């Protein structure tokens, strides 16, 4: 088994170690209706993609600590100054100034409710969520945007009050570290690795 690909940053540069791609043998594709005649080959491809979070890194870092950060336009020249965004937006979509990072954890814990939802029985490739997947759109007091996430306990309902849970044990540093449960959910009902923060 090869070493996992690792990336660190030093002197403002990526430092790579480990294997970023793996060579796997091709396999023949044979036509069973024609005496096993060769019709092609499979080309296995397995590579590690390096994805930079840039200005959104603070959002993912804080999820692992049980905190939800959004952003706010504080540009006094902006027509919509004071607008709060979650999901996190690095820049204001109206004036393009850099937004201020703000902690929305308390607002999320006290005012989150399901705007609408979608239950999916099937997934695309690389899905790790339990099926059926209960995708929810969540609204918050004082926030201009709606957050897309997933419900981990119970059944979704429009207008239902929910509270956030966080994968604080072995976080993935992706959006999957944030999930939601009905407001009366107890600690012992949470999925493995998740906590109330
Ligand atoms: Zn603005």
Descriptive report:
With 197 residues, the protein is mainly beta. The chain folds into two domains: 6-42, no CATH class; 54-195, OB fold (Dihydrolipoamide Acetyltransferase, E2P), CATH 2.40.50.140. Helices cover 7% and strands 32% of the residues. The chain contains two helices and 13 strands; from the N terminus they run E-E-E-E-H-E-E-E-H-E-E-E-E-E-E. The protein is globular. Residues 73, 75, 78, 80-81, 92, 94-95, 97 line the site of zinc ion.
Q: What's the CATH H-level homologous superfamily of the largest domain?
A: Nucleic acid-binding proteins
> In percent, how much strand structure appears in the residues?
25-35%
Q: Could you give the order of the helices and strands? A: EEEEHEEEHEEEEEE
Secondary structure class reads mainly beta
Q: How many structural domains can be distinguished in the coordinates?
A: 2
Q: What layout of secondary structure does this protein have?
A:
Elements: E1 6-10, E2 13-17, E3 27-31, E4 37-42, H1 57-63, E5 69-72, E6 84-85, E7 100-103, H2 105-111, E8 113-120, E9 133-139, E10 147-150, E11 162-167, E12 178-182, E13 194-195
Antiparallel strand pairs: 1-2, 3-4, 5-6, 5-7, 8-9, 9-10, 11-12, 11-13
Bound molecules: zinc ion.
């Amino acid at each position: 088994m090869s070493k996992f690909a690792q990336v660190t940053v030093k002197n403002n540069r990526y430092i790579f170690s480990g294997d970023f791609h793996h060579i796997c043998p091709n396999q023949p594709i044979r036509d069973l209706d024609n005496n096993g005649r060769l019709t092609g080959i499979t080309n296995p491809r397995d590579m590690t993609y390096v994805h930079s979070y840039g200005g959104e890194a603070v959002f993912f870092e804080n999820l692992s600590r049980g905190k939800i950060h959004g952003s706010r336009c504080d540009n006094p020249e902006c027509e919509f100054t004071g607008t709060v965004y979650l999901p996190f937006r690095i820049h204001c979509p109206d004036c393009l100034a850099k937004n201020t990072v703000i902690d929305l954890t308390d607002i999320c814990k006290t005012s989150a409710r399901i705007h609408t939802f979608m239950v999916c029985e099937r997934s695309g490739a690389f899905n790790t969520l339990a099926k059926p997947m209960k995708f929810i759109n969540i609204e918050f007091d004082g926030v201009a945007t709606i957050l897309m996430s997933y419900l981990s306990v119970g059944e979704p309902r429009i207008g239902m009050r929910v509270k956030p849970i966080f994968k604080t044990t072995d976080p993935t540093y992706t959006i999957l570290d944030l999930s939601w449960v009905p407001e009366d959910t107890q600690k012992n009902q949470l999925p493995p690795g998740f906590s109330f923060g």
